[in-house]
TrEMBL record:
PROSITE patterns: GNAT. This is GNAT family N-acetyltransferase. It comes from Streptomyces wedmorensis. The keyword Metal-binding does not apply. PANTHER family: AMINOALKYLPHOSPHONATE N-ACETYLTRANSFERASE-RELATED (PTHR43877:SF2), AMINOALKYLPHOSPHONATE N-ACETYLTRANSFERASE-RELATED-RELATED (PTHR43877).
């Protein structure tokens, strides 16, 4: 947390709506991801985190899949969580919001007893995640029409 914004678990319906609004702005409008791919059944059971400015303006979001929801994304290992849907509003980029969201998701994963966090990074973001301790593995693959790599960080 900094003086400019706070990161919290999105427990209230209004917080989740704010998460979805940031995702719509970044993924659907900016990157052209089809709406039907951006929102999925995992949204109902995922832990969402939200970064908000002091005046309540949503700046960014991310989600953690865990347990059975994460198994298909983590190579079948229920002790590994899956970080996804990390999005930072254009106006908030460069302020450390993305890193704060990743750290918040890692904290949630630790609280749930997970041993690692996996993610599927757009290839242009590999350096960002590497600076946060993630290591890429496996080949590049397409997701929503964009190149991605799997990454993992032990907790």
């Amino acid at each position: 947390m900094t003086a400019a914004y706070a990161v919290r678990e999105a427990a209230e319906p209004a917080d989740r709506d704010a998460c979805f609004a940031v995702r719509r702005e970044v993924f659907v409008e900016e990157q052209g991801v089809p709406r039907e791919l951006e929102y999925d059944a995992y949204d109902a059971t995922a832990v969402h985190v939200l970064a908000v400015r002091a005046d309540g303006l949503p700046l960014g979001t991310g989600r953690l899949l865990h347990g059975a929801d994460a198994v298909g994304k983590t190579g079948g290992d229920a002790s590994v969580g899956s970080l996804g849907r990390l999005a930072v509003a254009k106006a908030a980029r460069g302020l450390g919001v993305g890193a704060a969201l990743v750290l918040a998701v890692e904290d949630v994963a630790r609280e749930r007893g997970l041993t690692a966090v996996d993610l599927h990074a757009q290839t242009h973001a590999l350096g960002f995640y590497e600076r946060l301790g993630y290591t890429a593995y496996g080949p590049e693959f397409p997701d929503a029409g964009m190149p991605h790599r799997a990454m993992r960080k032990a907790l």
